[in-house]
Design a protein that fits this description.
alpha+beta, Nucleoside Triphosphate Pyrophosphohydrolase, four-stranded mixed sheet, 6 helices, globular
């Protein structure tokens, strides 16, 4: 019966993807985001709009989710021209666009120039550490940002989770 269901399973490509996001890594750590709705840590990205390319979707979603601003088209075009992904891969209908932490700092420089106002930071972040550590704990799509190890099969110890929940 599996062969029958596979006949109707849509194959996704970089042209007909449904969503895309940015992954930032140095191959030791990866930037993750605690999502407001699900309370799960995931990547930064979202659904495709109209005829966007996967890079346009990933960069737009990045700026929207990190700073709660609608990025101007000029910013997205500039970012697309100056920052080259290290890798692109698909997970079903989702495209992951991989950048380095150095790329993230360059992106922050341009976002600061084009989108000066954000309610999520007192001072606009200029690097990964200030992006993570200086983010206000307010009710936004992304609650907090985290660095995670780039490892397979990482699990958080239940006792450590209890310790963390005792803090709040």
């Amino acid at each position: 019966m599996e062969w029958f269901t596979n006949l109707f399973k849509e194959e996704y490509t970089l042209e007909n993807f449904k969503a895309a996001g940015c992954l930032f890594t140095n191959n030791v750590h990866v930037l993750g985001a605690l999502q407001k709705k699900s309370q799960k840590i995931s990547g930064i990205g979202g659904k495709r709009e109209e005829n966007e390319t996967y890079i346009q979707t990933a960069l737009r979603e990045l700026v929207e989710e990190l700073f709660e601003v609608n990025p101007p088209e000029t910013l997205l075009c500039t970012l697309q021209d100056i920052v080259n992904p290290k890798k692109v891969f698909m997970n079903n209908s989702y495209v992951n666009v991989v950048y380095s932490f150095d790329d993230l700092e360059m992106i922050l420089t341009f976002v600061k120039y084009y989108c000066k106002d954000t309610t999520l930071y007192n001072t606009f972040p200029t690097n990964c550490m200030t992006l993570i550590m200086d983010r206000k704990n307010v009710s936004s799509e992304i609650r907090q940002l985290v660095l995670l190890p780039c490892e397979k099969n990482v699990c958080i110890d239940l006792e450590f989770i209890k310790d963390i929940t005792s803090l709040v």
